[in-house]
Amino acid sequence: MQKKFWTILSTAALTALLAVSASALDGGKVNARLNVRASATTSASIKTTLNSGSTITLISKSGNWWYTEYAPNSYGYVHGDYVTSMGLQTATVRTQSTALNVRASASASASVVGKLPKGEQVVILGTYGNFYKILYDGNKTGYASTAYLTIEGSTSAARSAITLSVPSYKQYNYTSLRLPGSGEPVSTHGCAVTSLAMSESYRTGKTVTPKTVIANQKFTSTGALYWPSGYSRGENTLAYMYTQLANGKPVIVHVKKSNGSAHFAVVYGFTGGELAASNFKLLDPGSASRTTLQALYNVYPTLIKTLSY
Q1: N or C: more exposed end of the chain, with fewer CB within 10 A?
Q2: In whole angstroms, what is the distance from residue 118 CA to residue 103 CA?
Q3: Cβ neighbours around 156 below 10 Å, total
């Protein structure tokens, strides 16, 4: 990305770009319908319009404007008020001669969806075994072997503190409430129900308790919760969690121990600084002492999935 775009910029665009302070590439999450303009002003011509929720590559920032690659070999400016910098790391392709395969999933047998030349820079979205999930060519995502990508360091984007006013519920306070299907008590098996109640209370601005969730949601015969249609799986990365918080959305995390025992909790804030699990604020329905994501990981070290609306 960063290497190849120098060869295709016009003289005028190159002059403008040189005036922008250099920084590492980063991923950007678009927060609204967003115009991409030919230059860093609202009077410039519109090159395209991006949908809310799109992910693009951020190259450098000048004032309130980001210079971005929004599609393969397509560059322009977007206003910083409508895109959230994800604070991700950059990696460089370190193959000897051949191009690096980008695959559809984190497996050497997965289909090849792209190729990256030596020296190409990409943005790291997450680590999956021996593969990185990457953002490349502006808005494409795929998986590439960690053996041929060298991390260059984190971006200089500041990550501010965030706290969402999510209510705290403890499942052990609902001793008489039982899960449909299994009949198991919420006090010992209701972490998912309680986590959803916290998230829904914040989303709707109303009091939604575990009892409310049980009355309105569907469950399997074993007591497992069917998540509401508005909730979907997200990335298993700290960057994704931060982006969701920056967009005003708490994140439900599903974690497990090595013995398979699983648990749900809610990430509701960030203390500021680096993207570390210890800096994410946690509401754990099963514990009053686990108040950070790192404290949860100390007991349940494997992140199965994230959920958010």
Answers
A1: C
A2: 17
A3: 13
Of 97, 122, 154, the domain-final residue: 154
pLDDT digits (tens, 9 = 90+) for 274-305: 778 999 999 999 999 999 999 999 999 999 99
Last residue within a domain, chosen from 62, 85, 108: 85
User: What residues does 91 pair with on adjacent strands?
Assistant: 122, 151
For 140, list phi and psi in degrees, rounded to 5.
-90, 150
End-to-end CA distance of the chain: 31
| 172 shares its domain with 253 | yes
Per-residue b/e over 252-282, b at no fewer than 16 CB within 10 Å?
Answer: bbbbeeeeeeebbbbbbbbeeeebebebbbb
CATH number assigned to the domain comprising residue 56: 2.30.30.40
Domain that holds residue 64: 4-85
3-class DSSP assignment, residue 127: strand
The three-class DSSP label of residue 156 is coil
CA separation for the pair 260, 244 (Å, rounded): 27
